[in-house]
User: Fold this.
Amino acid sequence: MPTRELPWYRIAWDLSHADHTGSTFDEHAPLVEELLDRIRTDGPLSSTDVAPRAAIDWYWRPTNQVRAILEALAEAGILGLARREGNRRIYDLTERLLPADLLAQRFAERDQRRRKLLSRYRAHGLLGRSGSAEIWIGVANAPRHGTRPDLPTRADLLAELVESGDLVPVTIDGIRGERFILAEETALLEAAAAEVAARNGDDDDRSRGVAFLAPLDPFVWDRAFLRSLYEFDYVWEVYVPAPKRRWGYYVLPLLFGDRLVGRIEPRFDRRARTVNIIDVWWESGFDPLAAGGFVAGLVEALEALARFGNVDRVVLPRATRHQTLGRAIRDRLGYRGRIRG
Assistant:
């Protein structure tokens, strides 16, 4: 987010600071002071720059004390990330990383929470009043911080945003309940309606691109909405035991124009500088070879994925059911070196 937005979101720092004070920071006070002293004196620091200490219980698994305390100090806003080197996080004092006047700026907690709620609606585009709990984390009361009667509920904040005109309620044919869009984006909705009307039933997909959506992309936040609007049932199965998975470990929704047409599971092999496409599954009724422009869009998406992963080749699945599509990709579009299968 733009740095200027920081004062609207520093509530996360404040709540984490309160959580760690009286627990993590007190229980490990000598190490907290040691790490802060080293950073003040010597500059930015990574957990690998300090001899490891005994592991402590930390969120999902036991973790080296040094790494845990650095994370806690960053959660509390005392430290920030100066940079990353691969997976290494390099920490420095927040006061060295951000302007003093920005750090001094404060907004009321209610205003911060309302701004945070507005950001959820901005990111997704068509959220309703409900949805999975993780969508709303940090907006209203949370069990982690106890019940605070002084805090507004999410419904209170939503009503304020509608009353102020920041959010506009809309309805979708065939979908129960209101959804909400940003007032300044009503023109986008009107433009989309005009575009659909202009098609006049023409489903030519030639000008539409292909994209692989990340599992945490805002578009797929509201899983129930995906099912009701697109009839697309998506579950990110990284936390599902392997024998119970329907699809795979890291499967991505496949977007073609304005349609969710399938799922794809890519896996990077850094040593071989390759991205292997483990499998692809198509939604019922979708034929990738019959959809105009799909093959070309798929190749562009695969090439973009390879560039993103800084690898040289894309290897397609060898399953018999994918051979015709594989030939279309190689022969029709001429990709014989970078994409193979």
